[in-house]
Queue: 2 jobs
Job 1
Amino acid sequence: MGAQAREKVVVLLSGGMDSATALAMARNEGFECYALSFDYGQKCREELHAAAFLASSMGAVRHFVIPIGLDRYGGSALTDERPVPRSGEARTEFGIPETYVPARNTVFIAFALGWAETLGAHTVFIGANSVDYSGYPDCRPEYIAAWNQLARLATAEGASGGRPVEIRAPLMHLSKAQIIRTGRALGVDYGMTVSCYAPQDGLACGKCDSCVLRIKAFAEAGFPDPAPYVEA
Amino acid sequence: MGAQAREKVVVLLSGGMDSATALAMARNEGFECYALSFDYGQKCREELHAAAFLASSMGAVRHFVIPIGLDRYGGSALTDERPVPRSGEARTEFGIPETYVPARNTVFIAFALGWAETLGAHTVFIGANSVDYSGYPDCRPEYIAAWNQLARLATAEGASGGRPVEIRAPLMHLSKAQIIRTGRALGVDYGMTVSCYAPQDGLACGKCDSCVLRIKAFAEAGFPDPAPYVEA
């Protein structure tokens, strides 16, 4: 086994199509993959099962689900008593959907950085994507660039002039259709990914932002969407 | 009540002397204080009781203790099966004490940023200090500066060209003796703060890095240390 094969990566894995694709890309680059998910009180519990399945079936050597109390302070329609809005509805005063979870990706990357440091990994993959874009501030290229500045200073090895941990967002500039084509070529089973913010009896609602983006993505990619929907 | 009195701040509160002083400084500036602590599996459980007492006695309007699984991936003598080393012992390969918890402050600030955003606060206080310094990479001014770059991009309001959340480390350039003098002038009860990494029956060990720094600090400040020690 060469040095390349032994490089470790921490992959943030939500259970949705983007992070599943990021995991497939990491595996394809020869990384030894450590998958990281979070139970942050999200209403969509199915995505945690999806993450476990994807980690296992795609050869991650370990999968952690870290319980974190993001729902303690609320602030998102994904975690508090508000209903999950239909796509396009219910923007906040800053023009961002109500499904935005304050500092979610920031918290996720912080944990990934800590696990990477503990493992001796120098790479974190996140499936953030700025095309066909949710409007979330923490999915943009300048946000990831700022994280890399911080990561250089935040870890023991990086701060000692050694190799820093790099935060990579390999899907950043891909369209959703390109993501699906890439993932299919790498063997991602999109039928096992969960995108819906509020599934009902295991069926995607087809109406929330995340469903609407996904449906559009599969249409553009020219493949049938294997996910089951409430209204076909 | 003026506008100044209604500004909110999230104060990271460990229960030690630095964060207690940061809370006192925030209160003294007229902020409405929201105190945030974490149960990350630290062996020193006393510090969480201390944090609750300090938040309550120093007028924080709310105190959250967020359980987070930092101990899941280990990597520190403060959370895993290793004993807490005596001061000066057991440095890692990067010259940093074994008590360093990978990405701890990074995770803490990420949560504070999310709570600040939810509250409509624009300030986070952290008691990080680079003088009489632990050697931890995540306590340095350049680290806090990088966080402020990230925070400008990470929140909905900041990313929309509005007011970002500012991460402030008001103790950064104070010596430990200056911190104690400042806190005493602001009414901090240092007898209720817990610095020891591994107290025994409520008594500080007097030998770990944190105890040694504290003992030195009180000696330099010219005040008796009100904390109880195993060996007086």
Note: Chain B touches chain A through 50 residues (CB under 8 Å).
Job 2
Amino acid sequence: MWFKQICTKVKCNINFNQIHRKYSVIASVLEKSNIGELTEVKGWVKNLRVQKDLIFADVSDGSCAKRLQVVIPKHLKTDDLTYGSSVHISGKLSKSPRGQLELTAENVKVYGKCVVLEGYPFNPRTTHPPEYIRQYLHLRPRTNYMSAILRVRNTVTNLIHSYFASKNYIHIHTPILTSNDCEGAGEVFKVQPDNEATVKAMMQKGRNEDSVYFGSKTYLTVSGQLHLEAMCRGMGNVYTLGPTFRAENSRSRLHLSEFYMLEAEIAFCDHIDQLQAFIEDMLKYIFTEIRNKNESDLFLIDKENKIPTWLNKDFVTLTYDEARNILGKKGLDTTEEGINKEQELALVEYCNGVPVFIVRWPKQLKSFYMKDSPEDSSKVDALDLLTPVTGELVGGSLREDDYEKLKSKLPSEALNWYLELRKFGNIPTGGFGLGLERLLQVLCGVSNIKDTLPFPRWPHNCDM
Amino acid sequence: MWFKQICTKVKCNINFNQIHRKYSVIASVLEKSNIGELTEVKGWVKNLRVQKDLIFADVSDGSCAKRLQVVIPKHLKTDDLTYGSSVHISGKLSKSPRGQLELTAENVKVYGKCVVLEGYPFNPRTTHPPEYIRQYLHLRPRTNYMSAILRVRNTVTNLIHSYFASKNYIHIHTPILTSNDCEGAGEVFKVQPDNEATVKAMMQKGRNEDSVYFGSKTYLTVSGQLHLEAMCRGMGNVYTLGPTFRAENSRSRLHLSEFYMLEAEIAFCDHIDQLQAFIEDMLKYIFTEIRNKNESDLFLIDKENKIPTWLNKDFVTLTYDEARNILGKKGLDTTEEGINKEQELALVEYCNGVPVFIVRWPKQLKSFYMKDSPEDSSKVDALDLLTPVTGELVGGSLREDDYEKLKSKLPSEALNWYLELRKFGNIPTGGFGLGLERLLQVLCGVSNIKDTLPFPRWPHNCDM
């Protein structure tokens, strides 16, 4: 009884569609172009042109690169209606004399004013350089440049998920916190509770502060690969798209302390060709589809952005030795350290800007888990994919699947769980990692990686 | 010239489809059921029944809950072909006398043997309890229970992304590292480089070790909400699905140190009804679609799993005061601390298991950024959604959009950027956060949250 009374009294009798039909996002207003229809939009004034009896306002709501032109009779203009203000406008859709869709306002409401002189950093009719915009991370999505990049980023992540789903891959959330310091690379972040009371309450004799919470030192992941391999040996084909971290003291245009990595592990993969074919197919899919979905955004980011000339060509493959040879003839000798950034870009240029796989790498340049090359036992079956703009974009390999061989190469007992994967019903696998931000750099022609994600983190920069 | 020669010599002349057509995943073999077709599958032997001339093997490759029955003539049996081994089988598809699809093997190759006596923790024909399985994180995906949960998790994340995409929401990667300790909640992890050489090289006079890298103390995020609000005020509707962290010393069946949160921020949202309608619609979509896509997995996890009785009912809404009243009559008095877990579950029971929104919360129980309730200035326009199994599943609110009011409530100057969002073209917004693992608990009827993700982290547990 009680129950029924209360429910009737306060039950939420609302209809989802009613609520959200109140106004339309500009992307769909422009797409549908329903001339004569009563329409309500909400967004920000990007530009304001005052004429004799009329005011023309370009309104954007972030849903697409394009703006809606709104015609406002002068009597509806208030002082708050300025460049940068947020508005709610209702009126009727029509075609302008030039054939452009426009909304003739019947009602104008200003939600929030925007007084540039009070410190709003973006001036009307001004294209600010990315370094300037980057100083205002919290307001940056209001710029054309940044909002376009974030829409492209959103589409690219959607494309990645739909590509893998279409191939029956399972998405796995590999852990961010790990007790594995990943190949002893050294450049990792460690993690511990900030609250001294928590540390004190959990402290045990002989423990260090940085291992008291989890019982072992804990780091931020540098790669989900080893965890993905464990999943692959039960779930089959798997992938992950998530944050990874490097504590390097690097401020280059290609490095971040926090970045996103797409990693995939292909079950029953026993030849590096299979990896190459997968990566090439996936990249061509993304580069093709993004033009169908976000062409206006690409143009907003860079007016010179063009379809890559390599899109209908085969990617090139060179062995590491061949690549060295080519670099040597160009006067760029490689050292024991491998191929540096300048040399990577020289190799791409040499291949006329077509992405190039470098395969069959010297063992000592690559990780312990990579499989020996059948053609040459001093080499491993690894690959790097080099592209314009960034050089290395993808790294991958076949994984050592022989229990004894892997045991002899294992860098730490802490990885015994990884070794044990080879003991019980093991399968051959291979996989790769691709930096999402670098992919966006290539896709959008953005030279600084810090402009490819909403909140870049690098040394001395972790604002907000 | 050079270029052409090399490219012709080593160019990767492989066809993607050729490589991947070599074998089929079992999910698609079962779906297509092409009787008479030559078929190759790769996977693990889950069960082996030896008869006079024939061996029956159930093979699974992780792609679906169901197994493929393989009939193996005895002469193809080797010693390595046992329970747990990984195999490559080719043969012809037929219908068994019982009408079941089966593969009659013509070729059997064992990739990796599996000797249970050498330490493989899972016995044939045994259902191990989840606590036992949880001890073997790296092998856990080989169990029916865990692989089914991970497939459901994969589908749920895909459903979330497609739901938001269909409503024109932009996915934002809010940062994992933040200088904002989030409302001073205290239970955060701090982050610093592990490498002493890096710390030494970057050290400046007067700096503490834990602020030397980023120039300020840095934490793992506890919520992306404030960052999402910044994005919403330029991009419109936005959401994020990513990892969040709590350094609490809690080992309950509902808490993790690392977990995933779905957070959404709705642009131009000015009534809590809109939030409620959104959440209810989204949850009903997910609970309906998961049964279309993963019914066999849900059954594998819990044979008793049934369609929730509330799926075709309206969610209930109670104000906080009404909820207290009900609890009081049940002899469960609330304190100043709000509603505890026992009380949450009592309220859901009171509503006959239908999810219930608790709205209009006392100000002092909720966060500084929540908007005053127009009906009662001692209350804020916040909501909790309570469900069976977990109690609280979602928390949300309208956001304070008045510059002066927010300024008076701001807990720290470090949040001045957040305040400034209200200064320039501000809009009303509201949003919510939903724990992905708790959603999976409700969906699958899994009582311990540690079984809803591949690598659970909680105090004293960060293996691998």
Note: The CA atoms of residues 292 and 389 of chain A lie 22 Å apart.
